User: Fold this.
Amino acid sequence: MRLRESWVAFAALGALAGAVIAAPAASAQTAMPSLSQAAANTSNWAMPALNYSVTRYSPLDQINASNAGQLQVAWTFSTGVLRGHEGQPLVIGNTMYLVTPFPNTVFALDLNNDERIIWQYTPTQNPEVIPVMCCDTVNRGLAYGEGKIILHQADNTVVALDAETGKVDWSTPLASYKEGATGTGAPLVIGDKVFAGVSGGEFGVQGFMAALSLADGHILWKAYSEGPDNQILFDPNTTMSLGKPVGADSSLKTWKGDQWKIGGGDTWGWISYDPKLNLLYYGSGNPSTWNPTQRPGDNKWSMTIFARDPDTGVAKWVYQMTPHDQWDYDGINEMILADLTINGQQVPALVHFDRNGLAYVLNRATGALIAVHKYDPAVNWTTGVDMNPSSPNYGRPAVVAQYAPGSHGVNVNYQGICPAALGSKDEQPASFDPQTGLFYVPTNHVCMDYEPYPVAYTAGQPYVGATLSMFPGPGGYMGRFIAFDPVTGNTTWQIHDQFSDWGGALTTAGGVVFYGTLKGYLRAVDAKTGKILYNFKTPSGIIGNVMTYMHGGKQYIAVLSGVGGWAGIGLAAGLTDPHAGLGAVGGYAALKNYTALGGQLTVFALPGS
Amino acid sequence: MTVTSRLVPIAFVVALGCGVAALAAAPGNPTPVKESGGIWTDKDGAPTFAIAKDGSVDWGTFVGFLRYNDACLRCHGPDGAGSSYAPDLTQALKGIDYAQFIAFVAGGIQAVNTAQQLVMPSFATDKNVMCFIQEIYAYLRARATGGLGRGRPSQHAPAPKGFDEASYKCLGIQM
Assistant:
C-alpha cells in the first residue's frame, strides 16, 4: 500500500493496521542487487553477521588503531521503542535497514539524503505474544536476499518485504505463539531459501529449523531438535556423531515417554553456512523443564551443534555438548567458521563459545572434536570433556556432582555453580580476526545457586521449575571481554567490566575491535594489545552488535543502544550475593542506577569529509 | 497439620477477581492470625507472612519465594525487585490487596500504547502459579510490606506433613 497525501494521518494507525508508510520517492532507486552481489561489496553489511562464516570481521580499514581515538558521532536515530535492542542493522548500497523489538517496526533509511525514512513497516501482531517472549521482546536483526528484506516477527511469522517499498511480498507463520513459540533470531538467506528457527525453551516448545522458499514463502522443510527420525531429519546410517552413525531413534531413546514433544531444544541463535561443503550450522537450546530430575536421559538433541544439508534438511553430523542439561546452558551461540592452522595443518574449523563456559573447536566437514577449553577459569560444573576417542565417554563433559542440580534430586539448593544460567556467554556474538588469528569474545562472569523442583506443563504457560540466585563471579565483576585462542585455550588479554558484556563484537582490518557495554559505552580497542582507544557513552545500555559500513568514501561504525533482554531483567535491580551477606558493592550495584530504557542507533565516523 | 488440597478453585478466583477489579486497596494489617497447611492468614483471611525474630520465615513464604522464581522472575526480575521489562512488585504490592492481586494474576493486564507495551498474561490455567498463589502472595507481601530482604530466605519453617504429595497432586504430576 502506498499512500502519499494521507500518510501522516495513517502513521497513527500504523501499529494497528500492519501498515507500510512510504514517503514519496526523492530519487530513483537502482535495481536491487542479488545477495551474493551485495555481500561481495565490502562497503555493505548484507547479512546479520556480515558473512556466512559469521566472523563479523570487516575488511574495512579506514578506521585503524592510530586514528580510532578521534571517532565522533556522525548521526543518530531513535527507534521509538523502549525494549531491549539486540541485533544490528543491514546496509545495502545507499539504504540502511533496521528492525525494532516488538512491535518489530522495520525502517529503511536513505543514507544519501539525511537518513530520511524511505519507508517503515509495522506488522499487526497480537500483544499477547509479549509475555510469552522469554526475557524481553528482542529481535536480532533482518536478512536480505534478491530484493527482499526478511523479517522474523515476534509471533514466529516470517515475512518478506520489498526492499524498495516495504510492501509485503509473503508472510508465513512457523508455529503458534499461543503455545509459547516466538521469533527472536535473525533469519538467513542462502540461494533461493530462507532459514529461521524458533524461541520457547521456557514454554516447552519443540524446537526446529525451518527452510522457506525465498520466492513465495512456502515451507520446504522443518527439522526438529527432538523426536522420531522423520521429524528430526536424521538418516540413521549417514547422520554422524563423533565419527559414528547415530543409528535409529537416536533422539527418542534419550527421553522418558513422549516428553520430547514438550522437550525444548529451541533454535533462537545464529545460523552459519559453508558454501563449499553446502552445510548449514546452528545450535539447539535447553531441554524443557529446568528441573532435570523430571526429564531423565540425555535429552537428545537439545544442546547440540547441527550440520545440515540446506537443500534437504538432512543432518550430516551432530554433536551434543551438554547431555542431560542441568543448568539451562542453551547451545544456541554462534558457530564461527574459520580456517585455522592446527599442528601445521589447515583445518576447516567450526569454533563455538558455548553458554556452558567451554570453547569448542570441531572439524566442520566431519564434526570431529579437535579442542575444548574453558574460556573463563571460573567454570566449575565440569572438569573438562573426554577427548579420548576410544573412551565410552568420548566427547562428554565430566560433570562435578556438587554443581549438578540433578545429582541429588529436587528441593536441594545447589550452591556456587559457575557459570550462571545465562552462560559464560549468551547470544552476544564473538568475532574472529584472521589477522591476529584470535577470537574476541564478550562474556558473562556470573555464578549461581540452583534449586530445582517439579512443575506442571500447560501449553503457552512458563515451564521452568527451578529457582536461580545469580551473583558475580570471582573478583566481583560480571563482564570480561577477552581475546582468546580456542586451540590453545590461551587468553591473550582481557578487559573487565562491572556488568556483563552483552554487546556483540566487531573486528576490522584496521586492527580495531569494537563492542558495547551494558552501561552504554561503545568501545574501540586495539586488537593486538587490548588498549582502549575510544570509549563513548551512548544513551542506553548496549546489548546490540557493532557493525560497520562504507558510504561516500567514509567508514562508519554503528550500534543499537537500548538496555533490556535477559541482562536487563536479571541485572536491573542488581544482584545479591547469597553467601556474602548484605553490604556488598561493586558488581552488585543495580544496572538501573546507570542506564534507562530507550532504543537508539548511534553511528560513528572520523572527523572531516 | 496435614495438607489435603492445594488448588484455590479457579471459579472462586475469577469471581473474586471480577468483583473487585476496579477497587485498589492497600493490603491491610499483615499480622498473622491463623495457620493452616503451612500458610498463615491475616484477620481478613488473606495470606500473609510470619517472620520469626531470628529471621526464619514461615513455610508458605518460603514456597512463595521458590515458585515466584519459577513463574514470575523472567519478567519481574530477581526477588520481585522489578526489571527493564516489568514493574517492581515490592512497590506495586503496597497499593493492592489480595483480591486485586488474584485478579491481576488470573486475568492478566494489558497496557499497550505508543509509550509502552506492557502485557501480563493470564495465569488462570497455570497450575505452577495457581497451586501456589497463596504462597506467592505471602512472599511478595513480605517483600513489599514485611521487611523481607532480597535473596533466598536463609532459614524457614519445616514443610507440613503431606505437603509434597498434595503439591504433586495439585500439579497433576507423578514424582
